[in-house]
Amino acid sequence: MKVPRPWSRRAWLDTAHVMIGLPVGVLLGGLTLVLVVAPRLLMRAVPRFTGVQRSRFEAFLGLRIPPAQDPSGWRDPGMWRQIGYHLLSPLVSLVGVILVAVTWGGAIVGLLAFLPAKIHEAPLEFVFDLRNNRVVAVFMLVGLALLVLAPVLARAMAMLDLSVARALLEPSRTELGQRIETLTESRAGVIDAADAERRRIERDLHDGAQQRLVSLAMNLGLARATLTDLPEPAREAITRAHEEAKQALKELRDFVRGLHPAVLNDQGLDAALSGVAARAPIPVRLRVDIERRTTPTIEAVAFFIVSEALTNIAKHAAATKAEVSVRRERDRLHVLVHDDGCGGARMDGGTGLRGLAQRVDSVDGTLRLSSPLGGPTTIEVELPCE
Fold this sequence. Notes:
Blueprint: H1 9-34, H2 39-61, H3 77-111, H4 124-127, H5 133-169, H6 173-226, H7 232-259, H8 262-267, H9 269-279, E1 284-289, H10 296-317, E2 322-329, E3 332-339, H11 351-361, E4 366-370, E5 377-384
Parallel strand pairs: 1-2
Antiparallel strand pairs: 2-3, 3-5, 4-5
């Protein structure tokens, strides 16, 4: 614990926290005792009392105590811990106020002993002869020592109050475990829902807009081939429309493939990655060793990792070849993408690798990047299979 100086802002904030803690603690503790006769009212009031105390710690100590869940009933341990703190807080604050007030008061009295004797006529002059220089010197030494001790003691009492509050007001390990489990289930549900929505959009585009564009391109191609007796401007317009329709169809197919390739659902990761490797502008060596398929969400994450990595290699790496390895070992799926490019890739260098890391983190996976200047670059990813 860093020792605050007597004239520092930290020393005065600690002192104020201890001093204000007594009236606040007495008020809230008294209300807690009074409301025992009205259990329902007490159950609603206790979380608000806790909020007042929590704001006191944040205002004076700059520390935030994580809020616990609102008590669900008298059988909730959190309710009894909060009630216990409000009953214990006045006692802790009383001890702190006595020690801190006596220390600061003694420091002030001791350091003022050199003032003219008339000022000390009551009560010090009655007990001590403050006209004696030795007595004055002793008073001043004691006052100086108390001045140094006062901020230390104020800090210690503030930390004691904080320790008691954290022990009784923060969520317990059981509550934290339940929250983590709930958040994990919620996140898994959101990821699965998003993946299912992507598959639905892919099906709708494949069966709807894509088929209409195919029909349009075919009709324009037929018109282009058969209507040769039209004026030249009309033929040029048909030709341009045919080329635009084919380009739009290509872009839509690339978009649909990027959303969620149908082959991934039908034939699995091996077939989907084979298509990605075949379309890459550089030679890609692909090895897939998966005895049994993982969940659709994990397959989708692995597919997009490889697809995005190969896209980044083609755009930025100046590589002549790449390797992709996917294998399953028990409950982990290992994905490795390697290229012989110029290297220098960084996680903070662009949105591509950050997007990969976020996608991996969303399923509690791990991503490691090795990309020294001059190459090569290796991306290693581990994903949970379940």
